Amino acid sequence: RKWFRLAAEQGESKSMFELGRFYDHGKGVPVDYEEAFKWYKRAADLEYLEAEALVGVMYAKGLGVPEDRKEAFKWHQRAAAKGHSDAQVWLATAYLNSLGVLHDYKEAFKWYRQAAENGNADGQIGLGFAYASGIGVPIDEKEARKNFMLAANQGHTFAQLVLGEGLEPTVTVT
After folding, report:
1. Which DSSP category does 100 fall into?
2. Nearest 10 degrees: CA dihedral of 23, 26, 32, 35?
3. How are the residues of the chain apportioned to helix, strand and coil, as percentages rounded to the nearest 5?
4. Span 120-132, average pLDDT
5. Which residues 6+ apart lie within 8 Å of 151 measured at CB?
6. Which end of the chain is more exposed for a tag (fewer CB within 10 A), N or C?
């Protein structure tokens, strides 16, 4: 930690991020979400991609900072635009469930598709549900199954359950 802190204090973003992880996960230090947020935020301000996404997570969950869905959305949007697939899944879910942003099925579909194209199993599941339920796109059972298969082949247990049990992977769209 000593060397990470020294490098971080001199402005090195990866070291800032790693210090944040130490505090976030209690690696050699007590868990301290405020300290974790401080280091993640400093790295994110220097455009360290993983830190940008984690600042969004911390705002979304209220870890080290007050919960703020709009700030969470802003940081996830920033990371998603740069290709961070977990942030893309978070944005899709935010659009689907009105988390800090207005409900928009087409945007939800767009972000699930981008995450899926980046190989993210959760994005593939989301895309599978979108195709199965007609969320932002016409229903297409073949595309739904294809995306569940892609996630299942990555070891995603829910996708394996959906395929193995022959469940109808639909959600109610209101």
Report:
1. S
2. -10
3. 70, 0, 30
4. 95
5. 121, 122, 124, 125, 128, 158, 159
6. C
**3-state SS, residue 82:** coil
How many Å apart are CA 105 and CA 172, to the nearest integer? 13
Give CA–CA dist 149/119, Å, rounded: 12
Contacts of 171 (CB under 8 A, 6+ apart): 129, 133, 135
Give the model confidence (pLDDT) of 22-56 as tens digits.
999 999 999 999 999 999 999 999 999 999 999 99
Q: Which structure tokens are listed for 155?
A: 């070891």
User: Contact 80/93 with Cβ under 8 angstroms?
Assistant: no
* Interatomic CA distance for residues 69 and 56, integer angstroms: 9
